[in-house]
């Protein structure tokens, strides 16, 4: 029943913007800690951003601070990752994750930043 479905990935040019969506079912994102990870080929899965279940506390990896924003839309039960000023090194498969109290992973969506 618990499921995360990601969308919004694609090909963008360096300096461009993209918004990823993570639609949740089987639980309420407003009461759940949510996060985004990414994994580039040949590299480990890297934590990108998180928003906790208590309040609206958001944290970001140093590599994306000032460029990425994680947010919730409670009416749509969806978590977003707004990505601005994209760099080629942001190219990866991006995964949505619920970490507390529900634990789940999305299927991943490909983001490619290339000129």
Q: What does the secondary structure layout of this molecule look like, with pairings?
A:
Elements: E1 3-7, E2 10-12, E3 18-25, E4 33-39, E5 46-51, E6 58-60, E7 68-73, E8 78-83, E9 92-100, E10 104-105, E11 109-113
Parallel strand pairs: 2-11
Antiparallel strand pairs: 1-3, 3-8, 4-5, 4-9, 5-6, 7-8, 9-10, 9-11
Low-confidence stretches: none
Shape: globular
**In percent terms, what proportion of residues is strand?**
over 45%
Radius of gyration from CA coordinates: 13 Å
The N- to C-terminal Cα distance equals 40 Å
Q: From N to C, what is the helix and strand string?
A: EEEEEEEEEEE
How many strand segments? 11
Can you give the helix content as a percent range?
Answer: under 10%
Chain-averaged pLDDT: 96
| Class of secondary structure makeup | mainly beta
Q: Looking at the chains present, what oligomeric state does this protein adopt?
A: single chain
Tally of individual helices: 0
Largest sheet: 7 strands, mixed
Account of the 3D structure:
The protein is mainly β and 115 residues long. Helices cover 0% and strands 52% of the residues. The protein is built from no helices and 11 strands. It has strands spanning 3-7, 10-12, 18-25, 33-39, 46-51, 58-60, 68-73, 78-83, 92-100, 104-105, 109-113. The strands form 2 sheets. Strands 2, 4, 5, 6, 9, 10 and 11 form a 7-stranded mixed β-sheet that branches. The radius of gyration is 13 Å and the shape is globular.
Which terms would index this structure?
115 residues, mainly beta, 7-stranded mixed beta sheet, 4-stranded antiparallel beta sheet, globular
């Amino acid at each position: 029943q618990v499921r995360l479905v990601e969308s919004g990935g694609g090909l963008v040019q360096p300096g461009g913007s993209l918004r990823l969506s993570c639609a949740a079912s089987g639980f309420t994102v407003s009461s759940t800690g949510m996060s985004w990870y990414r994994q580039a080929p040949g590299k480990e899965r890297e934590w990108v951003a998180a928003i906790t279940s208590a309040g609206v506390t958001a944290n970001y990896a140093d590599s994306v601070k000032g460029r990425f924003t994680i947010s919730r839309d409670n009416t749509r039960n969806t978590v977003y990752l707004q990505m601005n000023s994209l760099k080629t090194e942001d190219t990866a498969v991006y995964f949505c994750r619920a970490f507390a109290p529900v634990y789940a992973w999305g299927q991943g969506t490909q983001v490619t930043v290339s000129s």
